[in-house]
Amino acid sequence: MKIIVLGGGLVGGPMAMDLATDDQFAVTVADRDEQVLNNLAAMADIIPLVADLADPAAVTALVAGYDFVVDAVPGFMGFQTLKAILEAGKNVIDIAFFPEDPFELDALAKEKGVTAIMDCGVFPGMGSALIGRVARKLDQVDTVLTYVGGLPEIRQWPWEYKAVFSPVDVIEEYTRPARYVENGVLVTRPALSDPELIDFHELGTLEAFNTDGLRTLMKTIDAPNMKEKTLRYPGHIEKMAVLRECGFFSGEEIEVGGNKVRPLDVTARLLFPMWKLEEGEGDITVMQIRIEGVRNNQRLRYVYDLCDRYDHDMGVTSMARTTGYTATMALRMVAEGLYTHQGISPPEYMGRQFGCVDYLLKGLADRGIHYRERVEVLS
Questions:
Q1: What global pTM score does this model have?
Q2: Of 7, 4, 11, 212, which Cα lies nearest the Cα of 101?
């Protein structure tokens, strides 16, 4: 099976290397950065392909000769790239996390007869699949609450943060309004709002804030209360809020010394080098999901915990592992015919189908990523 991975960056590269370990796959990575491609080809049996993925028509032509596509482009390119892949009639696993409504492409995907699993990361992604499985088990879902974040193993002033996926998408988390469901009503709040402190056994106290991470769950899960919050080390919220409110994340041009510049471009140029994981530095992915509801007149709470760390032996970040390996296991599941839903398929759809979550969990566990489940009886 010929597979092409679009984007060889922080997550796309590790996904390609994981897929290349399977004899059944011939893996190509397309990226505009030749050095990135050469590095990947030196580490695994991967075919490098220099390509500009910004042109949708070029993407459609590019993927035509492949059996399966993995879309790992930045979020701002995601929707148009996914549409281009669907136009080519290719099954696709997508981790672009674009802001547009993916169901706008559902009719196209069904017309082409393809499976398009989008948002297939850690959350949304594996966490969404777990929520979908619990929703299938319960007679009624009352509350879904998710805390998730990527953190550096070592806290360093001033930011105590490292970007373990596209830094542009990180800034989007601080600016895109957060949508959640409260008492059956859709609520929109600013990003970074409603801070709270949460204690985690492995990491101590972290701070959580509203982000727009529920995405398709707002349409696919019938629960009156749902919220997603991002986790950081304490103090991060205030720093990001100051930058945002002072206009440093603005995409509107301003004049400086007779030149037109976007504050966001200047901020990115300054921050991204400081947010880059240096060689030998590690990261942590932490997530907790709480799902409450009723089954057989008994009120239950399902809790899932994840605390994953950088793989120093392989040199793969935890975020790449927890995001990328979810996607590569989903690809294997489709390739083996275990999941056949045609059309746009958010990860919670996989949770609805018996056996899919167990398949994903086993594949992740084989790669050292372990989700812990506990079920509490509330009444």
A1: 0.93
A2: 212
